[in-house]
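Supplementary Methods. Inverse-folding protocol.

Structures were first reduced to a discrete structure-token string of length 510. This string, shown here, constituted the complete conditioning input.
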């Protein structure tokens, strides 16, 4: 029979009991009669019959793939479908219920992580999922969505979300005396790598270590990304050659900078705020090292005069040489933790404890040394969920960016004066860390989203225009205005934005 071929029938016998195994032909269904004949040595036979029915249960439902998310805020869209019309049960689960409990998973606007929906054969149905993490907790969580049809056939898909405060969230404040974070020990330093970080230097030092590695013991084996005096520097010492590449940019105190170093074999490139600052050539580190943030260990011993005084945020360490475009794309935008080549990823978004969680999935968690809960502070780094940028131009007005929110309103920014190397515009798709409106008669601010502008250069000014068409917060235009703040850790203040009801815009020069 075509339903079950002879080759797909087998048996075993144990203690006089016969066990028959039947494997139907793929994609076949129907009825068949299986004849079992037993013969002995005297040619005597006996027969019995087995009636077999194979039911076609159809194909399992399908779920569209979902990208890993850099934030647990906002709504994620996906689709489900099935080959047969009928009911589908959608269930969403969380890998870390202490961070995102089942009660904090909401399918298609409901308050439940389970949803029953009716689908038409081979017609995709749009669904959504949103999250309410436990406030104040931070980690990367895997979400699994399972679709089950009426035949109990199932399919599933996984993606990750990162529970964090809005925007840049928090940072660690290093005292410059004995604070540091101990990372991986006895590590083999790669010849090719990339490091990125946001830093806020409060005081100059002989050497303020951002991300460092040095020998476990014995012969010198040093790699240090640091600020020495007022210059950014990447230094290597292999016991024979001690050499470094220094930035051309002079760093000011009490100002946030995005810094990066890329080493591709021997070629080294330093970046400041997403722009290439200097290049050089360095060799190889030969021996295992201990890695740290904010301090510098040699033979396991912290070294005086190498402690960082200020704040550090959003540190990532990669096994690949990131391109200029990749660095600019990540300057003002948080990553998801699942990017190719990512070794360590720290957002610094805890509010307590002595563990710095690695969000890369590689479990390279850090341990805070000589630090306590008071060292977790609100970050002022220029970070959002989405960003656009322009690093091409020669005069200020050449640098132009524009970014839309989901409801249709958008912000544009253009350079006005100063020396420009680039401009970044970012969007945070949730309420800011501070939702208190300015004084002077303000009653409320839109808490669904906010933008940030990060000009790259010196003595820069820029103009912004907000088109509020489609923004559901706007009801009475006559009293509409725009609030601003210096960074994520400061308070909102009223601006002198010019309102145009005719064009539905607010404009401001900064």
């Amino acid at each position: 029979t075509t339903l079950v071929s002879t080759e797909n029938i087998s048996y075993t016998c144990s203690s006089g009991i016969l066990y028959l195994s039947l494997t139907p032909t793929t994609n076949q269904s129907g009825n068949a009669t299986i004849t079992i004949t037993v013969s002995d040595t005297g040619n005597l036979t006996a027969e019995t019959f087995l009636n077999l029915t194979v039911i076609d249960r159809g194909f399992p439902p399908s779920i569209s793939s979902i990208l890993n998310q850099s934030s647990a805020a906002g709504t994620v869209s996906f689709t489900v479908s099935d080959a047969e019309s009928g009911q589908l049960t959608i269930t969403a689960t969380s890998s870390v219920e202490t961070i995102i409990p089942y009660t904090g998973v909401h399918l298609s606007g409901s308050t439940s992580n389970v949803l029953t929906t009716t689908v038409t054969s081979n017609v995709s149905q749009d669904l959504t999922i949103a999250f309410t993490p436990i406030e104040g907790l931070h980690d990367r969580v895997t979400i699994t969505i399972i679709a089950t049809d009426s035949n109990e056939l199932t399919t599933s898909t996984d993606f990750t979300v990162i529970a964090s405060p809005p925007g840049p969230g928090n940072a660690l404040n290093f005292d410059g005396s004995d604070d540091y974070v101990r990372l991986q020990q006895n590590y083999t330093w790669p010849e090719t790598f990339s490091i990125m970080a946001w830093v806020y230097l409060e005081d100059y030092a002989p050497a303020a270590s951002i991300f460092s590695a040095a020998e476990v013991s014995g012969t010198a084996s040093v790699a240090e990304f640091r600020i020495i005096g007022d210059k950014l520097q990447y230094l290597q010492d292999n016991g024979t050659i001690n050499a470094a590449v220094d930035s051309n940019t002079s760093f000011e105190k009490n100002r946030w900078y995005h810094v990066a170093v890329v080493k591709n074999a021997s070629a080294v490139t330093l970046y400041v705020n997403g722009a290439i600052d200097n290049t050089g050539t360095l060799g190889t580190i030969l021996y295992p090292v201990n890695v740290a943030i904010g301090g510098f260990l040699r033979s396991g011993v912290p070294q005086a005069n190498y402690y960082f005084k200020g704040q550090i945020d959003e540190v990532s360490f990669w096994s690949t040489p990131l391109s200029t475009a990749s660095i600019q794309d990540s300057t003002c935008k948080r990553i998801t933790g699942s990017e190719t080549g990512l070794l360590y990823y720290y957002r610094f978004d805890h509010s307590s404890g002595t563990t710095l969680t690695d969000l890369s999935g590689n479990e390279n968690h850090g341990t805070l040394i000589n630090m306590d809960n008071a060292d977790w502070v609100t970050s002022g780094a220029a970070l959002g969920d989405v960003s656009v940028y322009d690093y091409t131009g020669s005069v200020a007005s050449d640098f132009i960016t524009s970014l839309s929110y989901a409801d249709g309103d958008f912000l544009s920014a253009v350079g006005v004066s100063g020396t420009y190397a680039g401009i970044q515009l970012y969007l945070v798709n949730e309420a800011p860390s501070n939702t208190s409106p300015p004084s002077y008669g303000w009653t409320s601010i839109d808490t669904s989203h906010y933008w940030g502008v990060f000009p790259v250069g010196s003595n820069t000014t820029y103009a912004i225009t907000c088109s509020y068409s489609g923004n559901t917060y706007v009801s009475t235009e006559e009293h509409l205005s725009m609030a601003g703040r210096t960074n994520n850790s400061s308070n909102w203040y009223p601006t002198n934005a010019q309102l145009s009801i005719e064009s539905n815009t607010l404009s401001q020069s900064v």
